[in-house]
Amino acid sequence: MKKVVIIGSGFAGLSAASFMAKAGWEVKVLEKNSTTGGRASVLLADGFTFDMGPSWYWMPGVFERFFNCFGKKVSDYYELQRLDPSYRVYWPDDNMDVPADYNELKIVFEKLEPGSGEMLDKFMQEAAFKYEVGINKLVHKPGQSLLEFADWELVKGVLKLDVFNSIKNHVRKHFKHPKLRELLEFPVLFLGALPQDTPALYSLMNYADIKLGTWYPKGGMFKIAEAMTSLAKELGVKFYCNHEVIEIKVENGIAKNVLAKNIEAQSSVHSFDADVVIGGADYHFIEIKLLLPQYQSYTEKYWNKRVMAPSSLLYYVGLNKKISNVLHHSLFFDVSFDLHGKEIYTDPKWPTSPLFYVCAPSVTDNTVAPEGGENLFFLIPVASGLEGDTEQLRDQYFDQILSRYENRIGQPIKDSIVFKKSFSVSDFKNVYNSFKGNAYGLANTLMQTAILKPGLRSKKVSNLFYTGQLTVPGPGVPPCLISGEVVSREVVKNYG
C-alpha cells in the first residue's frame, strides 16, 4: 500500500486525507497543535465554546458534495440551520437587516434605490452563471497548465465570467446607492483585495450570500472539522497531533520521509516514510523552513511580492448576561469603508478607525454559552505583516469597538464581561506558522488566480504537493475542501 504523509490538518489537509484514503493509500496526518481543524479550532473557557477561526457558513452545497463523495451526508455529522435575517449591517445613520428571502431583499433594495430590485435580478442572473462555472469548473482545475482552460464552455463563457473587469466597476454599473454598493462589495474583503483589484468573477460570492444563504452548524463551526476528522478516521486515516514537523528529507529530488518532533515527549523525533508528501500547512513555512534551499520552488523574494489577504484582530468575549435585539452576524460599516480598505491593502498600517464584525452565536445556539450568558466574537480585518502587535494596542482597539458596539445596540456590556481573550498577527504566526500572520491566505487578484498562484506541485521535489489557502483554488473554507480534492486527484493521477 502506498503511503502519503499530510502536513497539517486544516480543512484542506482533512479533505485531502479522506480522498487519499478513499483511493486506497495509507494516510498519516501530522498536526502541530493538540487538535485537528487548523484555524477552525475551538476555545473552551468558563462554560463558553468559542470558534477561534471561521464563523460564516456559506456555499452549503460544497460541504454536502464533499460528504456525498464518501456516501455520507452533512446531516450524518451535524445539524444545519439557515439564519434569517442572514446578517445585519450598521451604517453611520441606521442599520439594515438582510433577509434570507430574496423577494423581501428586493423590497429592501427598492426602498433605498427605486429600480434596484429589478437590477438585482439581472445582477443575480450573472452571478449565478459565474457561481455555476466558478464552483463546478474553475475551482476544480489544478492550475498546472493553461491547457486546462481549453474547455469550450469556459472559452464561450469567458466574457460572461468578467475576469478582466473589477467587482467595484461591476457593482457600480448596476447600483448607485452607496449602501447597496458597500453591501455587494463586502464579501470580497474576505478574498483579500480591494473591490477595484478583485475580478468581477467574484460576484459569485454575492450569489452565495444572497441566494444560497448564511447557515450555522449547531455547536459551532469546529463541528465541521470534527466531522471531517471523524470521516477520515472511518476511512482509516491516522492522526498524529502534537507532532511539529521539522524537516522533509529529500534525496535526489524525491521526498523520502518527514521528521516530526513529538511536542508532548519533548526530545522525541519521529520519522514518517512517504511515497508522497502533501503540505496542508502554510505553504511558505513548508518551503522556507522544512526544505533545503535547493529544493524550494519559490524564493523569499517571490513570497514578499505576493499580495496577501488580511490578517485579523480577534476577541473572544463571554458575558454573564443576555443582550437583546442583536443578530448572529453583524457588520459595522459605520465608518469609512475606503479608509480602512486603504490601510489594509494600499498603505498597510494599524487602522485609524476600523470596520469590524461581531458574531453572537449564542443568539442561535444556547449550547455555546452558560445559561443566561452571551458568546461574542469580534473581528477587525488588519493588514498582514504588521509589527507592534502588543496587548496595549489590542486593548485600545477593543475599547474603541466596544463603545461603538454598545452605542449601536443601546446596551452596556463592558461591566458584564466575564471572559476575554484576544488573538492577532503574532498568534497567527506562532500557532499556525502563518506567512506574515495572514488569516485568509493569498489575495484573489487577477495576477494571483489559477495558474498564477503558487503551484500545487513542487517544482523541485517530484513527490511533494501542496493544498490550502496559499495555492489553488484560494482562500475560504469551501475552496479549501475543494483544494484537498484537487490535490488528491493530481497525486493519484501521477502516482497511481
Report on this structure.
It is a single chain. The N and C termini lie close together (11 Å). This protein has 496 residues and is α/β, with parallel strands linked by helices. The model has no long low-confidence stretch (mean pLDDT 95). It has a seven-stranded mixed beta sheet. A five-stranded parallel beta sheet has the order 9-2-1-13-19, with helices on one face. Among the domains are: 181 residues, 3-Layer(bba) Sandwich (FAD/NAD(P)-binding domain); 110 residues, Guanine Nucleotide Dissociation Inhibitor, domain 1. The chain contains 15 helices and 19 strands.
Q: What layout of secondary structure does this protein have?
A:
Blueprint: E1 3-7, H1 11-22, E2 26-30, E3 42-45, E4 48-51, H2 60-68, E5 80-82, E6 87-90, E7 95-98, H3 102-112, H4 116-136, H5 152-161, H6 167-174, H7 178-185, H8 204-212, E8 215-217, H9 222-234, E9 238-240, E10 243-251, E11 254-262, E12 269-273, E13 276-279, H10 283-290, H11 300-304, E14 311-319, E15 329-332, H12 337-345, E16 356-359, E17 374-382, H13 391-409, E18 417-423, H14 425-432, E19 464-466, H15 477-495
Parallel strand pairs: 1-2, 1-13, 2-9, 6-15, 13-19
Antiparallel strand pairs: 3-4, 5-8, 6-7, 10-11, 11-12, 14-17, 14-18, 15-16, 16-17
Helix pairs in contact: 1-9, 1-15, 3-4, 4-8
